[in-house]
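Structure Section — protein described below
Tokens — whole-number codes for backbone shape
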Amino acid sequence: MSFSGIILDWYHQNKRSLPWRKSLDPYKIWLSEIILQQTRVAQGAPYYLRFVEQFPTVHHMANASEEEVLKLWQGLGYYSRARNLHATAKIVVNQYNGEFPDTYNELLKLKGVGDYTASAISSICFNEPQAVVDGNVYRVLSRYFGIDIPINSAEGIKYFKSLAEKVMDVNDIRDYNQGIMEFGAIQCSPKKPLCLHCPLNESCVALQKGIVGQLPVKLKKTKVRNRFFNYIIPIYIDADGNRFTNLQQRKGKGIWQNLWEFPLIESNSMLEIEDVDNRYKQLFEGNGEIELIEFNEVAIIHKLSHQHLHTKFWILNTNTEIPNQISFEKIKNFPVPVLIADFIKAFKF
């Protein structure tokens, strides 16, 4: 039996029951693929179900605000995916009359849709013979054929795409593409692959050479950048006992674009209370008394793909109103990064 035939046979016997597999609606397939970028299935599935419930069609998503989409996305990270999701929904509605393009080349024109996503949608929804190449496919192909070209190099991306096209099953591309991705996720997993019971083990080059754990090869990651964040949480309680604070929206092209956070002081190293007091109290100078309290003595290290955020939270109690203040009751309505969401939960707003 051919490589693709074995993959198909395995898939028909072992495929998981996943919510997006119950439909060939390109909107739902697109939604699942965007969510599953940089996200494990176990984490992504509940988000998919919530998105489908709140935005059952692409029209519903296009008519929503970006903040609604970001709030529902909160916790998945890589928030540019959510912004692209919303932008693409608008494009599909406004430029394609609410109908997703049915070809690989046309799908590539959508914001946030690259080679993999266009291949997945076109093959699964429209049976177009396009080979998918994601992390799972890289792993299966590199191990089975014993290829040590770095998968994140220009040469590797081109080589594995070509190889994937050669071995794919054009007559059952829908199941084949889902099958090879599923095979990589379950059978040929990153750690502890099930080689003993693998239907490809007799012809797997990596297994024969004892190099399964060494493949696939990746070029070294970009050096991690350390950043030092000091969040100031102003708190004002009025005469009726209502509590207020302040949030600010992040702008620019850096991390967490358009998400909300507490007033931030970024520094070259962790600050002591005197440093924070000197740099922030001027905003309240002449407006009454303030009290600064260190919330966490040890900095929280929040790890992003190429950045480590060393973070402290400082409570600033004041007896005067806060500029642009927000009531505690409304703070949970804002889309915020996980780092801020965890603090809000810990502080029990």
About this structure: The mean pLDDT is 94.
